[in-house]
Design a protein that fits this description.
The protein is mainly α. Helices cover 62% and strands 2% of the residues. It has 18 helices and four strands.
Length: 584
């Protein structure tokens, strides 16, 4: 990772003086009506409070449902541990899969602003549906009678999961757009604003965790001790506040115009390069087709310099004799600009880095599932106060809230002196540090589980589904390590997929970053399924059972630690070979 090229300013050649440092932005942003926009009165940190407030309230609503969802499924809908964990990770994975829908709509047609607006409404309807399902007696199962817990009816399941997956759809339009929309408020052609944009991603993640802190502490307590109707109703109210906060900043936002479907442009490159497979790519890249104007032919995008990788795709930009003689360069399925070709090259180059985020996401998926289930079998009392197991995720969040300002105000300035990079570490270096910390997190969880099982055996509690007298506070280190890993890896991903993506595909690339979380959740579900299948063969109890005292959850954590180590080694190789984007 240390051999990567130094970050370079992304200033456009030949920009007018008033575009770079004067009156207007130089990155193509416009106001709400589509007119060139003044720097002084718009965007920058002036617009960020509205974006950060929106994200804080939306994340409070999301985590208000997600953090304690496994408890609702087991205690209210009477599901088993494995079924509940699988449902939570599948839903969470879907929440990170639907952003592909929102991203395509934002980049191609609606723009980020209107995509956020429309999907926020869908989100709010889902929140209200979920609240009703937990409040109306006919929509929830009958309470347990002793040890007998009647399952939910198909109708009750239908209403609950309808609301739950409306939320998954709604978040699909918000997740890939809101961080990019916030970053759009900083002019990428202004060196000062570009540095501030790096700081924005830190505080964006900080605002996420402020919302998550309230959810994992106050809302979890309300859900466990007051009622699920109120526990789901409060997040619905905060979602309404998020919508109001977002619209409040409309007058001072900077907007990027949608550039048309990025998927179509990529298909055009593939089609044109295949059609011209027999043509030779000229050694002089200046002979490849590109518009003569300063701006790119793609709406809302700067030109991208030609790269020497994946030269087979350069055939799409080779001007054939027929095109030269006719002078007709209008068929994008036969001739593409260098910038259009480089768009696809960038996405392909980012793929290995993207893929290594999947295992990290599988590790992160244990926080609301296996960590919580581990905590339910530990001593949750401190004096006369009982700690809900899901509330331990508060320490993950507190770790993030602590490290964000420390990283932004202390670590970055110190690192900048040694690396010479304006953000202290490159995005790739930052993500690599986080991958290492995630390994330590799994090791800490495994050690806690080994001690818990040892105590259960000593006290003859193996066959009894009761909590072991080991304080739940021993889980704190694994949550703190996960929070530190998030600061490096997840914020690094936000920066990487925004900065390295082509201008007109930033929502889509942000969605790809979120897709790693989705696939990580699905990978976690797959691993759970495979582990359950293979470890229960021949009548064995298995690693993960409803009575964790009988199982070996520690083996599961060791397995994830091993996968994480292998993943980190692959990541280091990919990061060393990665070449940075060069915009002109």
């Amino acid at each position: 990772m240390g051999s990567l090229e130094n970050e370079r300013p992304l200033l456009e050649d030949g920009l007018l003086q008033d575009e770079v440092g004067g009156l207007y932005t130089g990155d193509g942003s416009v106001d709400f009506n589509g007119n060139p926009i003044l720097k002084r009165n718009t965007g920058n940190w002036k617009a960020c409070p509205f974006v950060l407030g929106t994200e804080c309230c939306e994340r409070l609503a999301y985590y208000g449902i997600g953090i304690n969802l496994v408890t609702y499924l087991t205690k209210q809908l009477h599901e088993g541990n494995v079924s509940a964990a699988r449902n939570v990770t599948t839903w969470s994975g879907t929440c990170y899969l639907t952003p592909l829908i929102g991203a395509i709509l934002a980049d191609a047609y609606w723009g980020r602003y209107w995509t956020i607006a429309v999907f926020s409404a869908i989100y709010f309807i889902g929140m209200c549906t979920l609240t009703l399902s937990a409040s109306i007696p006919a929509l929830k199962p009958i309470e347990c009678n002793g040890t007998f817990c009647p399952p939910a009816t198909p109708a009750q399941y239908a209403v609950f999961f309808f609301g739950l997956y409306l939320i998954a759809l709604g978040t699909g339009g918000i997740k890939p757009c809101v961080s990019s929309f916030g970053a759009d408020q900083f002019d990428d052609t202004d060196p000062k604003e570009r540095v501030q944009k790096g700081s924005f991603f830190n505080w964006f993640y900080f605002s996420i965790n402020i919302g998550a802190l309230i959810s994992s502490s106050l809302l979890v307590w309300i859900q466990d001790n007051v009622g699920w109707g109120l526990g789901f109703g409060i997040p619905a109210v905060f979602m309404a506040i998020a919508i109001a906060s977002f619209f409040s900043g409309t007058a001072i936002y900077r907007f990027q115009k949608p550039g048309g479907s990025p998927l179509t442009r990529m298909c055009q490159v593939l089609a044109a390069s295949f059609h011209k497979w027999n043509l030779e790519v000229p050694k002089d890249s200046s002979l490849l087709y590109e518009t003569r104007e300063k701006s790119s032919a793609i709406e809302g995008s700067r030109k991208i310099e030609h790269s020497d990788e994946l030269t087979c795709l350069d055939k799409a930009a080779v001007i054939s004799d027929a095109e030269m003689s006719s002078g007709d360069f209008s068929n994008s399925w036969r001739l593409c600009t260098v910038t259009q070709v480089e768009e696809l090259k960038i996405v392909i180059r980012m793929f290995p880095i993207w893929a290594t985020g999947i295992v990290f996401a599988a590790v992160y998926a244990q926080t609301p599932t296996m960590f919580v289930e581990q905590g339910t079998m530990m001593d949750t009392s401190i004096g006369s106060f009982t700690i809900p197991p899901a509330s331990l995720s508060t320490f993950d969040i507190i770790s993030v809230i602590f490290w964000v300002p420390v990283y932004d105000r202390v670590i970055v300035p110190i690192a900048r002196r040694f690396t010479g990079k304006e953000r202290g570490f490159s995005e790739l270096q930052r993500m690599g540090i986080g991958l290492f910390l995630s390994i330590l997190c799994m090791l800490a969880a495994a050690i806690v589980e080994i001690n818990r099982l040892q105590i259960a055996e000593e006290l003859d509690l193996v066959d009894k589904q009761v909590a072991v007298p080991l304080s739940i506070c021993w889980q704190i280190p694994q949550y703190v390590l996960m929070g530190a890993a998030e600061i490096f890896t997840l914020i690094g991903q936000l920066e990487f997929f925004y900065d390295q993506s082509p201008d007109a595909t930033r929502s889509l690339c942000s969605a790809f970053a979120l897709l790693t979380t989705s696939l990580g959740n699905y990978l976690s579900s797959l691993i759970l399924t495979l582990v359950t299948y293979f470890t229960t063969k021949g009548g064995n109890v298995g690693w993960i059972t409803d009575n964790l005292n009988e199982g070996h959850l520690d083996y599961f954590f060791w397995l994830l630690a091993g996968l994480s180590l292998l993943n980190m080694l692959v990541y280091i190789v990919c990061a060393k070979q990665y070449k940075q984007k060069k915009a002109t």
